[in-house]
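Reproducibility note. Readers wishing to regenerate the assembly model reported in the main text can use the exact inputs given here. Chain order matters: entities are listed in the order in which they were concatenated for prediction.
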Amino acid sequence: MTLPAGVHAVTYTQDQALIRTPKQWLCFFGFLILLLALPLFGGGKIIGIMNVMGIMMIGVVGLQITIGYAGQTNLGQSAFMGVGAYVCGALALQFNLPLWLNIALGGVSAALFGAIFGLAAARIKGFYMALTTIAAQYIFSFVMIKLPKGWFGQAEGLRLEPASLLGWTFDTDLGMYYLIFVVALIMIYGAWGLARSRSGRAFVAVRDNDNAAEIIGINVYYYKALAFFIGAFYAGVSGGLWAYYIRYIQADQFTLWLSVWYVGMLIVGGLGSILGAIIGTVVIRILQEFITYIGPQLAEIFPHVGGQVVFASMNMLLGGIIILFMIFEPRGLVHRWNIIKESYRIWPFPH
Amino acid sequence: MVNFLTYIINGALTGLLYALVALGFVIIYRSSRVFNFAQGEFVVVGAFLVFSFLSVLDLPLWLSLILSFGISIVVGLAIERIVLRPLVGEELFSLVMVTIGLLIFIRGGVLVIWGAEVRFFPVVLPMEAIRIGPLVLDRALVIGGGITILVAMLTSWFFNHTRLGVEMTAVAEDHQIALSLGLSVKRSLAIAWAVSGVLSTMAAIIFLNGKGMTFLASDIGFAALPVPLLAGLESIGGLLLAGLIVGLSIGIASYFLDPIFQGGVMTVFPFVIMVIILLIRPSGLFGWKTIERV
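Running the prediction on these inputs yields the following structure tokens for the assembly.
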């Protein structure tokens, strides 16, 4: 990663800064202000889309840590999200704890659930890991429906009151937008920091060659389990936000299918980069919304598919995209973005 | 007591069915090291092919079966040619991730072609139940069990005693080394995907014979996973034993646990077994001991 010409670090603090040049600060704040001001000129529909996007983004960023950084295949992210949502919802209904604590506890319980399945990583690796997470998915939906009714409401699920914090009540899409915005900002910042920390580097070492990692003194079991713990924590937080946003939780919302979509978002965005997770989520969500939007026209072209046409064409599109990306652009959109950035910096020279 | 016996025998037969689904999975794994997440979708494609020829186009049984098997071979080969071949020599990770893309794509394709409503799968195997004393057995499953045993033994012989089979095994060991020895990774992949397509269609016929089906029948692809895992992912002969063990434990578990949990144990128990196997003996009963362990 090269820096713009003429930018040199003189102190260690400067060397470690994420944002280095005045222009970058300008872009960063401009982007934040744009996001904050979006409700002023976007309609309610856009806010709704952004909310779901923000919630999913947190989950996908977590998945990026597990899959992209630590290399542990995880097809259970939506089950972990579900655990977070259920725990957060049950706490809100029964104990009346403050909002931030609910979401954090939802995240922690999801993280513990994830770590249980991540512990299998102590014995196996590679795609065997994917199997335990698929199992997590099925066990999750079975357990949530069979537990006593007082806990998670069995098949009927849970219904929540709007979230409130410091006298504010987040009962509209707009209120939730700012809540999700703040939480997502914190979580993404955390992920960025984590990726550059000792743990993040250890994850990458374990992913690239676990024997070598062990030899240079990295506790491989610990970091594998930690990768699951952190990834599932992100899923839990996103589940908690989901619970407060939809205000109705049911096991059917957290399917294996959703987890597969999350992995698809990662592949499209690019594995091994936080920015990739963000780009992937945004691009795939926009595509999804686009297909939902043109759904009625699609239904005319394929009348026999009926109401499932949106789901069907979305799957064909995403499946096709994943296959094409794996074949032609295995490093995802973020790789393309980096190339563009690089060429802009060194322009007019070719390299 | 009779009830208990029925649970056990049906469990064992279901286990053999799982073994047949798993066989398609193992053949791909065993000849290319690719973990095919889309196996369940193969079963659904096979099912809908048979359904289209037999129920929609009203062709005679033998012709529909030949056409269905033929098309599933073509589908398998097409997937290999279009999706997997460009990735030969890439990291295994890409090869496996691409099957996730396939899983999503095929499901969408099945929905676009055949729609989402419940269809009735034609009766291919005789429907009337087999009665032995007070026991009532599903005839399709019994015949299917026989077919599974036969096919598994044939495939096992093929992989262990023919030149081609051993070459395919070598490809699974290491793509690079196989290539440098002059073995064709492409051919190995192509054969594996074609055979896997045929086996999935067979499994579909046995599984869905005379029942209602939707695209969601593909869940069997995941439910069958404990069987190859218990056998050890490379072992074909072991699949039969593993299928029986898994099937029996599912049968016994549903007999004792269903009353406690008000049903549904059968859908989740395979996954419980899967986690237990992974924690205790990840290389399975007969797997190669080279399984990458940390």
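We highlight two features of this model. Strands of chain B lie at 119-120, 130-132, 135-137, 212-213. DSSP finds twelve helices and four strands in chain B.
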